[in-house]
Amino acid sequence: MHDPWLRGSANRWVPSPQPAGVYQLSVRDFLHENYKAWNIAKVRNLFSKDVAEKILETPLVSSVREDKVVWEEERNGCYSVKSGYKLAMRYIIEDVSRLVLDCWKGEWNVLSIVLNESSDTVGRVAMLIWCIWHNCNDKLWNDNVQMPRQIGRHAFDAWNDWYSVHKLQSNNVSRTTEADLVRWEKPTLDWVKCNVDVAFVSGSGRTSVGLCFRNNSGHFMAGMTQWQQTVISSVEGEA
């Protein structure tokens, strides 16, 4: 009763619930003792009408004396690595497709709820959704999973960093005039120019550094960014 042995391509499992004693029985327990035929009275007594009819419709081949395991993914009934791999990939693709569809539905439902909230709340929710989606991809491709508490903390920190940087940029833009703009100048022939900048996020205790190398044609050659858990002056950072 633990295998999908009913006939047909769908509903091949014996549905639950069934009488308690049925779970310990096998197919041969529903046959007559002296000859190979279904015990009709016993089958109809233990199962619902539709299940009983499916069982009774199953033909019993008299030439077969013992059961054997058959692999239905191959015509000859024998298992092969190729067919096993194809079956596994089919289930994986179905699971991923269902996961993607469910995730998008869930995201739209959440966003429709928070649209009337403040922009700060909407931003936090959007960042949390992005972190959850990133965690799903990390599990799929790298088999790496974060705990819900870790995802929530990462979303909180990422949102605060994003908000602080954009708030700082918006304040700087509002105070900048055309006269304050500095135009980049190309280096002389056969020279490379390196531009350096540092940034500080108030209250974070971090200093970020960025480097950009360009040739005398103004073409980008290389770049680098890094941050360290310390606060230094702008002069020290650019040095």
Give a brief description:
The chain has 239 residues and is of the alpha+beta class.
Question: Can you put this structure into words, describing what you see?
Answer:
The protein is an alpha+beta fold and 239 residues long. It has 3 domains: 1-68, no CATH class; 81-174; 193-238, no CATH class. It has 6 helices and 3 strands. The chain has a 3-stranded antiparallel β-sheet with strand order 1-2-3. The protein is elongated and about 100 Å long.
Q: Any descriptors?
A:
239 residues, alpha+beta, 3 domains, 6 helices, 11% strand
What are the SSEs and their pairings?
Blueprint: H1 40-46, H2 49-57, H3 81-114, H4 119-142, H5 148-175, E1 193-201, E2 206-214, E3 220-228, H6 234-238
Antiparallel strand pairs: 1-2, 2-3
Helix pairs in contact: 1-2, 3-4, 4-5
Mean pLDDT, as a whole number?
Answer: 78
Distance between the termini: 76 Å
What's the alpha carbon Rg, rounded to whole Å? 34 Å
| Overall form | elongated
Question: Helix-strand pattern, N to C?
Answer: HHHHHEEEH
Main beta sheet: 3 strands, antiparallel
Could you say how many structural domains there are in total? 3
Q: How many extended strands? A: 3
InterPro entries: RNase_H-like_EbsB-rel (IPR052929)
Organism: Trifolium subterraneum (Subterranean clover)
Protein name: RNase H type-1 domain-containing protein
